[in-house]
UniProtKB/TrEMBL annotation:
Keywords: 2Fe-2S, Iron, Iron-sulfur, Metal-binding. Signal peptide: none annotated. This is Ferredoxin reductase. SUPFAM superfamilies: Ferredoxin reductase-like, C-terminal NADP-linked domain, Riboflavin synthase domain-like.
Length: 254
């Protein structure tokens, strides 16, 4: 029994399962959430990701990593994909992949960039662009568990039109006690915005994050340059490096 239990759990993650697309939701002009039904899905923690693998008729295969953007829900796994212009996989997933189509899924992957609903430290989430995906899984898991852990989300986007999960985030801020969301705009700020467009900086994290004395758990996700800038700022502000967890959305395999 014991001999099979551990290898069984490990091989779970290494196994490619044939999933099907069962639903899709457009998030922005260039991003959509794909809802996959994955047979025998072993469950996941908010923050983990999966690998998706596509196989062409001639046998050519391409695999890419995508964060899971919703908490565990039986065999359903949601990922939210941003189009990378000229990319091989993301335009296919957004334009060609249709409900009923198969895709291979491997996961869940990642044991470090995880928030557990039993964690009690205040949480700072900092997302850039599609980096909101695993952070949204955490926001949703907090809600689903009825957690009262204070969450602050700082979300950097190009324009208001690029906000993923916009309606839901508005609802969550209204209904989920202890969740604050701040939007920062890099290209075009909506009218009445307190700040003009800018890249995230010290003042933003000082104002909208937590003081390091509260020992918050910080999760930073987005393009590599964004993540490195934010992590450096947080450490510079006095957050202990071990409390600053990062996930970089560079090209898969980089
Ligand atoms: C752990 C992890 C989790 C990820 N989660 C998500 C997610 O939740 N949502 C999501 O949309 N993406 C996510 N990504 C990125 C994703 O894996 C792919 O890299 C992305 O979809 C591009 O794949 P592609 O085949 O379309 O482009 P490719 O054909 O791989 O690349 C085309 C060109 O674009 C460049 N490029 C590739 N990826 C990026 C990128 N992310 N940013 C800027 N330039 C890039 C390449 O260098 C290349 O020049 C994640 C990556 C990692 C490592």
């Amino acid at each position: 029994m014991a001999r099979t239990a551990v290898p069984g759990r490990l091989s779970n993650r290494a196994t490619w399962r044939v999933a099907r697309l069962v639903d899709r939701r457009q998030e922005t002009e260039t991003a959509a959430t794909l809802v996959l039904e994955v047979p025998d899905w072993p469950g996941h923690q908010p923050g983990q990701h999966v690998d998706l693998r596509l196989t062409a008729d001639d046998g050519y295969q391409a695999a890419r990593s995508y964060s899971i953007s919703a908490p565990v829900d039986g065999d359903r796994v949601e990922v939210t994909v941003q189009r990378v212009p000229e990319g091989e996989v993301s335009p296919y997933l957004l334009d060609v992949f249709t409900v009923g189509d198969p895709v291979e899924v491997r996961g869940p992957i990642g044991g470090y960039f995880i928030w557990r609903v039993t964690d009690t430290a205040p949480v700072l989430l900092v997302g850039g662009g599609s980096g909101i995906a695993p952070l949204m899984a955490m926001v949703r898991a907090r809600r689903a568990a009825g957690s009262r852990v204070p969450f602050r989300l700082v979300y950097s986007v190009r324009t208001e039109r690029d906000i993923y999960f916009a309606d839901e985030l508005r609802r969550r801020v209204r209904d989920d006690q202890g969740l604050d969301v701040t939007y920062l705009y890099t290209r075009e700020a909506p009218e009445g915005s307190p700040a003009s467009p800018h890249r995230i900086g010290v003042a933003d994290l000082n104002t909208h994050g937590w003081p390091p004395q509260l020992e918050p758990a910080c999760y930073v996700c987005g393009p590599t340059g964004f993540v490195e800038t934010v992590a450096d700022i947080l450490v510079g502000l006095g957050h202990e490096p071990r409390r600053v967890r990062t996930e970089r959305f560079g090209p898969t395999g980089a």
